[in-house]
Write a structure and sequence with these properties.
Distance between the termini: 38 Å
Shape: globular
Number of helices: 10
Radius of gyration: 17 Å
Largest sheet: none
Pfam families: DUF6931 (PF22011)
Strand content: under 5%
Protein name: Secreted protein
């Protein structure tokens, strides 16, 4: 006779936050009992903690949903991207729609072409670093660190938010609202 599987314990915000670099005011808001959603909501309620909220949500979301969030932010900030950026955005979009190994590898090439220091480059890198191997297919597998995708997602979102320096706060608010919709399931793939 088999024993029914025990439900996995709910992940706590502190578990997600432990590997993140958060500001002292953000850390002060973290309660040991907070769920990821509760802590995100607490951060998002303070406009001066928007960057912390972005970093936290990038780590809290499943990788595919996180890349989808960053994709929406990058598209919003760059409606007419340069060709290399457009290629990175298209590659990330293809991976979000169909997260195959071929699409993931295409994101790696697109991230390099767009430059890893750009929003579009970070977006494509986030998808490439989501799993698989960083090494070429004919070499031994080199898995990415688990935190690389979240790091690239937050970089893509943050870089997208500062494109228009006169509207950074509005961009943060818009991008956090989009992230909240994805996290809650209100927006679906």
């Amino acid at each position: 006779m088999t024993t029914p599987a025990q439900p996995r314990p709910a992940r706590l915000a502190a578990d997600v936050a432990k590997s993140l670099v958060l500001s002292e005011p953000a850390k002060a808001l973290l309660s040991p009992a907070h769920t990821p959603r509760q802590f995100f909501d607490a951060l998002a309620a303070h406009s001066d903690l928007a960057e912390d909220a972005i970093r936290f949500l990038a780590a809290a979301l499943p990788k595919r949903e996180g890349v989808w969030w960053a994709l929406g932010c990058v598209r919003s900030a760059f409606p007419k991207p340069a060709p290399e950026a457009a290629r990175a955005i298209t590659a990330a979009d293809a991976w979000v729609k169909e997260p195959t190994e071929v699409n993931r590898r295409a994101c790696g090439d697109a991230a390099s072409a767009a430059d890893h220091g750009t929003a579009a480059g970070c977006l494509a890198a986030a998808a490439f670093w989501s799993g698989g191997s960083l090494a070429p297919p004919h070499l031994a597998a080199v898995p990415p660190r688990d935190d690389l995708t979240a790091t690239a997602i937050s970089a893509a979102v943050l870089l997208s938010a500062v494109v228009d320096v006169n509207h950074i706060a509005a961009s943060y608010a818009k991008f956090l609202a989009l992230g909240a919709d994805i996290a809650s399931g209100k927006a679906r793939l």
